[in-house]
Specification:
5 helices
């Protein structure tokens, strides 16, 4: 639908085709377990360069109703989890990468544009 609302799965599609991809789909199983509980608000925090953006692309690809990711997750750990089909591509997702906004703001500032 768009880059912010119900994104497609292209970002995660590129990640899984990289030589250095490590299966982190266990995070999806944990997130599924927290849906509709007191623990439903999850903060994905990690040190710089440790895969926060990739993790969020993965979560967006899994939950977003803006795409069909069944084949994309085939062969990964989450496919064997009992909650896999219950939540796959069933939710409206808002995807905001704050880093992109900061880069754009920094670029505007260096161009003398306010």
């Amino acid at each position: 639908m768009g880059i912010y609302l119900n994104p497609d799965n292209r970002g995660f599609w590129k990640a899984v085709r990289s030589e250095i991809y490590v299966d982190k789909t266990g995070l999806i199983a944990y997130t599924n377990k927290c849906i509709n509980t007191e623990q439903q608000n999850i903060c994905v925090s990690r040190p710089r360069r440790f895969g926060k953006s990739m993790a969020l692309k993965m979560l967006a690809a899994y939950y977003s109703c803006g795409c069909d990711s069944r084949e994309l997750f085939a062969g990964y750990k989450i496919e064997h989890d009992s909650t896999f089909h219950a939540h796959l591509n069933k939710y409206d997702v808002i995807y905001l990468n704050i880093q992109h906004f900061l880069i754009r703001a920094q670029k505007r500032g260096s161009d003398g544009i306010s």
